[in-house]
Amino acid sequence: MAGSKVYISKTLAATTVLMTFSAIIGIITMIAVYQLEVMSLPPTKPPEPTTTETIPTGPPPSMRLPGNVIPESYKVFLQPYLYTEISNVTNQTFLFTGNSTVQLRCMEKSKNIFLHSKDLVLKAIRLTDLDENVNLEVTHHVNESDSDSNFLEIRVENEVLRENGSYSLFTAFEGILHDDLEGFYRSEYEDQASGEKRFLAASQMEPTDARKVFPCFDEPAMKAYFEITIIHREGTTALTNWPMTASGSNTIIIDGESWLVTPFATTSKMSTYILAITVSDFTSQPSPHREGIKVWARPDAVDAKHTDYAATITVPILEYYEEEFGIKYPLNKLDEIALPDLGPGAMENWGLITYRESALLFVEGVSSETNKEWIATIIAHELAHQWFGNLVTMNWWNEIWLNEGFATYMAYKGVDKVEPSWNVKDLIVINEVQEALEVDALTTSHPLCSAEEDIQTPSDIAGLFDVITYSKGAAVLRMLSYYIGENQFKMGIRSYLNEFKYSNVVQKDLWRHLQQAVDDAHRLENVEDVMKSWTQQVGYPVVTVNTNDGKVYQEHFLLNKTEHMSTLQWQVPIITVKDGSTDKPITFLLTDEVTKSEFKSDRWVLANVNRTGFYRVNYNKENWQRLIQQLETRPNEIFTINRGQLIDDAFNLARAKYVNVTLALDTTKYLKNDTEYIPWQSAVHNLDYFILMFDRSEVYGPMQAYLRKQVIPLYEYFENYTIHSEVPESHTAQFNQINAISVACANGFKNCTDMASSLFNRWRENDTYQPIHPNLKTTIYCNAIAAGGEDEWEFAWERFQNSTVATERDKLRYALSCTKQIWLLNRYLQYTLDPNKIRKMDAVSTIIYIARNVAGQALAWDFVRAQWNYFSQQYDGGIIALGELIDEVTLRFSTEYELQQLKQFQAEHGEDSLGSASRALEQAIERTEANIKWVKENKRTVLEWFRRESKTAY
C-alpha cells in the first residue's frame, strides 16, 4: 500500500540509496541522505597499544576468501535508473546506485577483511564494531591487477578485529546497468501497442556475479540472510527472492516523478549466487492451483495467454517434489518471469526463477511439441533446484554436479508427473546419457567431482557448466537409483535434504545418507565404493561380453586410443538378458574380469538393459551378428531403448576401433522397418558424424542415396499427417515425423524438398495464413531457405524481425543459417555483432547454427578467430561458456590443415585469453586428431559400403 509522499530533489535522489531507512510504522521512505547519516555515526575508536602478536595482513594465498571473517546478514538497497538520468552524470541513463550493510562475525584475530567487488564504484565504506558501538578507521583497496580474484580488501588501521567479534560493514556504491547479461543488467523489448522501447532491469548472479551488484562474500558456502529494498519508478514492479513486507511499497516524489520504495522480507539463509532482482512493467498470471505462485511476462504475452501452460504445470510439479523429497517448498510465494534477455535458458534463483521467453512461454498454434517439452523440462529442472542447490548447496563449485546432476535427473520425473503420455523417462537416454557418453570419451574430459584446488577462477567455474556436469551427473544418479533400488534412493535423498537444509554439502554427505537407506533395507551395496569411481575418475568403461567363453571384462573407453591406455577400473552395475530366456535379467557388479557360464551361449546376449548403466557394451563378433540378425527379423523383441543403444554403441565402438565400421553401418539397415523414435534418433545422431566427416568428399553422394533409401518408408509412414498439416498422436511419434522430413529433405528426396518449398511459398504469398504445422516449422523453413535464394532469406529475416514470439524467432533464426548463399551467411555472421539485430544471448548459438551448414563452417571458424577478443570480452566467465562455441564450430574438422589452425589459435591466445574455452579447445584438438586418423583408416571402406548398399536405392 502507498504511504505518505515525501518530496525531494533530483540531486538528493541520486544519493538516497546511500542511506538506511527509518522503520516507523513500517518503512516509509528514505528521508535522510548519506551526509546526515555520517553526522550521526558513533565516534571513531582511538587506537589501542600495539602488541607483538603476529596477525595476518597480506592477501589470501589463493583465489578463495580466507574465512577469517564470515557474513551473517545483509541489508541491501538498490535503485536502478532505467529512464531518468542521474544528476551530474552526463549522458548516462543506465546506472544503479545502492548500499549494503553486512553484519560480520570475526573467526580469528585479523587486520583485514576480504570480500568480492567487481565493476562497482565505491562511494563510501564504514566499519563498525558492534560490540563496542564505535567506528573503526579503515582504508580499502580493490585488486584491479588481478581480474580473477575481484577482492575488495578492507584494512583496519591501528586496530585488530577480535576473534568472535561482531562487526558491521557499510558500503555505498554505483554501477552501470550494462546489457552483458551478468550481475544487475538491463534488458529491453518493444511494446506492441505503442511501438515504444521498454527497458527493464534483471539479474544473473550465478556463478560469480553477485559481486557486480554489491560488495559481498561471493562464495556458495558463505550463506547469510538478506533483506533487500528496491527503489524503482512508479508504474514498475520490483521482485526479488522473498515476498514484499506487509507494509508494502511506499511512494516518494523525485523531481516531480513518482518512485516506489519496496522492502522485501528477510530471506532464509542462502548463497549469494541465487539472489535475484527484477524491475519491470510486466504483469502476471497466477497459478490456478496454489496461492502465491505467479508467472510474469510482457503484458501483451500475459494477455495473449502465453503464460497459461507454465502457470498450469508449475504447481503439480512443485507438489510432486514436495512429496518425493518429504520437505515442503519453504516459501509462501514463487515468481517465474520470462525475460527478453537472459544468458542461460533459465536460472533457479530461490523464489524468483528467471527464464528466457522461449523456456517459459508456450503459444498455442505457434510453438511446437518440442518447445512444449523444453518448457516443461526447464520448469521441472529449475523447480528441482529449489531443493537441490537452494535449500542444500554444494560447498564449492568443484561439486556443482550435486546441484545440476540432481536437477537434470529429477526434471524427467517432474515432467512425467504432469505429462505421463510423453514417456520422458525413456528420453533421458537420448537427451542426457548418449550426449554425456560422447563427450566423456575424450581424454580431455573432466571428472564429475574435480579437485577443489583445480577450480579457483571464474573461468574455471564457468567451464564446469557443461554436458559432464549436467548430463553425466543425471546419468550416474539414474544408474545408482536402479542399482540400489528406487525406494532406497528416495529415502536416502529425503534424509540428505533434511539434514543439510540451509547449509552446504560435499558428495560424501550424499553417499552417507544413501548408504543408510541401503543398510535400512538390509541390502549389501557399498554406495561410496561404487560411486567414487564414477564421480572422481574421468570417463567410463566399455564392458565386453564374450559369448564364446562367457568372459566379461572392462577397460577405459576412449575414442582416440593410445599405446599407454588408462588402467582405470569402475564398479559397473550390469543387467543382461538372453534371447528366448523367460528368466529374470541377470544382475551383478563387475569389477575385475569374470566368467559367467550363463553367458556362454549360441543365442544372443544383451547387456545394459534399458541402458540404465553409464557405459558402452561390446561383444564378440558372433554375438553382434546375432543381434543384428534379430534387428532385421524381429526387432520388437529387443527393447526400444536397447535398439537405440546397439546403434549408438556400435558406431562409437567403430570410431574407437573396437569393431569394424561396416558392423556399425549394418545396424542401420533394419531401420526401414522401424518407426520408433529412439532407434531412429540414435542413428540420425551417429550418422551425423559421417556427414560431418564426408560431406566435403566423394563419399557424400552414395551416403545420401543410402539415407534416402532408408528414410523413404518412414517419410511415407508419416506423409498423410504431413500433407494435411496434422501430427501423430504420440509424443515420440511427433518427434520421429520431424526426423523423417529432416532426413528425407537433407538427402535430396524430391517429394520432400518440393513439399517444403511449396509450403513455404504458400506462406510467402499470404503471410496472414500459416500452412506449416508448428512441429514442422524448423525443418520446413530450413529446407525451403536452403533450396531458395535471397528472396526466401529476406522474407524469413523480415518475419524474424517482426515476430514477438520467442519460439518462432528461434525457429527462423536457425532457418536463416541454412542458406547456401555464401554472401548471405557472411552478412548473417556480421549481424551477430549487432545486438539490435541478434540479441546478445543468441549470438553464440547463431554462429553455431551457421557452422553446422557445410557452406558456412569455414566462414564461421574464420569469423570466430577474427572476433575472438570481442567474444572473450563479452562472454567469458559468465554462464554463456565460450567452450560451446569452440566445440561446435570445429566439429567438422578432419584435416591436417584444420588441426594446424587449431594449434595456431591455441598458441596465439594462450590459456588466459581462452578462459573458460581452454578445455574445449584441448578437446577440439584431440577430437580433430582422432577424426583425421579415423577418416584415413575408414574412408575407402565407408565409400564401398554406401555404394553397395545404395544400389537398390528407392
How would you describe the overall organization of this protein?
- The chain is α+β, with helices and mostly antiparallel strands.
- It has 6 domains: 260 residues, tricorn interacting facor f3 domain (Immunoglobulin-like); 153 residues, Neutral Protease Domain 2 (Neutral Protease, domain 2, Orthogonal Bundle); 100 residues, Immunoglobulin-like, CATH 2.60.40.1910; 80 residues, no CATH class; 72 residues, no CATH class; 134 residues, Zincin-like fold (Alpha Horseshoe), CATH 1.25.50.
- 41% of the residues lie in helices and 18% in strands.
- Strand 17 and strand 18 form a beta hairpin.
- The termini are far apart.
Key descriptive features of the protein:
zinc ion binding, nine-stranded mixed β-sheet, Immunoglobulin-like, glycoprotein, protease, five-stranded mixed β-sheet, disordered N terminus, alpha+beta, 6 domains, angiogenesis, Neutral Protease, domain 2, 954 residues, aminopeptidase, 41% helix
Q: Tell me the fraction of residues in β-strands, as a range.
A: 15-25%
Which architecture name of the largest domain does CATH use? Sandwich
Number of strands: 30
State the CATH class of the largest domain: Mainly Beta
Tally of structural domains: 6
Q: Which fold does the CATH topology of the largest domain refer to?
A: Immunoglobulin-like
Low-pLDDT runs: 1-52
For the record, give the distance between the C-alpha atoms at the N and C termini, rounded to a whole number: 72 Å
Content-based structural category:
alpha+beta
Helix content: 40-55%
